[in-house]
Amino acid sequence: MKLRIFTEPQQGALYKDLLAVAQHAEKLGFDGFFRSDHYVKMGDQASGLPGPSDAWITLAGIARETSTIRLGTLVNSSTFRYPGVLAISIANVDDMSNGRVELGLGAGWFNDEHTSYGIPFPALGERFDRLEEQLAIVTGLWKTPIDQTFSFDGKHFQLINSPALPKPVQSPVPIIIGGGGPKRTPALAARYASEFNLPFSSQELFVQQCDRVKAACNDISRDPNSLVYSTALIVCVGKTDADVKRRAAFLGREVDELKLNGVCGTPAEAIEKLQSWAAVGAERAYLQVLDLADLDQLDLIASEVMGSL
């Protein structure tokens, strides 16, 4: 199992905080550094200083100050960006990183951040319609040969004779699609994704949803094993029980609840939990790190957990 670091900077983070975590994770050998795409803090919206940051602007900066770690979003909200502009931004950052970016893309779900910043928030069905068109456009632009143009006539987006430039370094850029929707999400993952992610779920729901994705792959004659299947879990690991309790207190969570729903405990307990996820088919785990100043926890996971996976 590969371990990636997942951050939530809308909860309160400067660029320098994200960069420090990304560089440290790279030095320790973590497989990737990913961030959320939100514009409002979850919970008390009056706090969360210094305020939100844009996912691809910060990843562009990190791309120039790292060299090996994979970089991406878990996940971009399709409501935030026009698909043509998104394709350009990601191709630019892929070039800046020498081919290390991955695009996580979803329909969007958090109404408050849309109303706070004047972003339209259609009903769920329309958001999925827009997401489906956006995936078709982004991948279509990247796949179009350099000497040809790309056009698209959809209900929500129309492109006429786009030069379909720039091209990303990678061909294709890995796309991550996730979520628990029983029909449209598996179908979109089977058609467009290189990875399916179900975050913060039980193992039973993870297996059920992965089975739906695999069935959707079979429906279009795609090998289900051509996708990577991954989970995201909050992390709270300490060398001693006292360290675990201290880190849980920072998160405002109870240790027993974290042990049930995340990767929590001593290194031995963390290994056992992650191995149980591997046993049900999770090939990657995104470890949600909420205390960005606590680099010691990353040291501990790298030295005493990662090698056993």
Structure description:
The protein has helices at 15-28, 55-64, 83-96, 111-116, 124-143, 184-192, 203-219, 241-251, 255-261, 267-279, 295-304; strands spanning 2-7, 32-35, 70-73, 76-77, 101-106, 150-153, 158-162, 175-178, 195-199, 228-237, 263-265, 284-289. It has one domain (2-308): Luciferase-like domain (TIM Barrel), CATH 3.20.20.30. The longest helix has 20 residues, at 124-143. Strand 1 (2-7), helix 1 (15-28) and strand 2 (32-35) form a beta-alpha-beta unit. The mean pLDDT is 97. The chain is built from eleven helices and twelve strands. Strands 1-2-3-5-8-9-10-12 form an eight-stranded parallel β-barrel, surrounded by nine helices. It is 42% helix and 19% strand. The protein is α/β, with parallel strands linked by helices and 309 residues long.
So what's the oligomer here? single chain
Corresponding CATH superfamily: Luciferase-like domain
**Spatial arrangement of strands, main beta sheet:** 1-2-3-5-8-9-10-12
The CATH architecture assignment turns out to be: Alpha-Beta Barrel
Outline the biggest β-sheet.
8 strands, parallel, barrel
Uncertain spans: none
CATH class: Alpha Beta
Structural class label: alpha/beta
Mean pLDDT: 97
Rg over CA atoms, rounded to whole Å, is 19 Å
Strand content of the residues, in percent?
15-25%
Q: Outline, from the CA principal axes?
A: globular
The helix content, as a percent range, equals 40-55%
What's the total number of strands?
A: 12
The number of helical runs is 11
How far apart lie the N and C ends?
A: 6 Å
Report the order of strands and helices.
EHEHEEHEHHEEEHEHEHHEHEH
Which fold does the CATH topology refer to? Answer: TIM Barrel
Count of spatially separate domains: 1
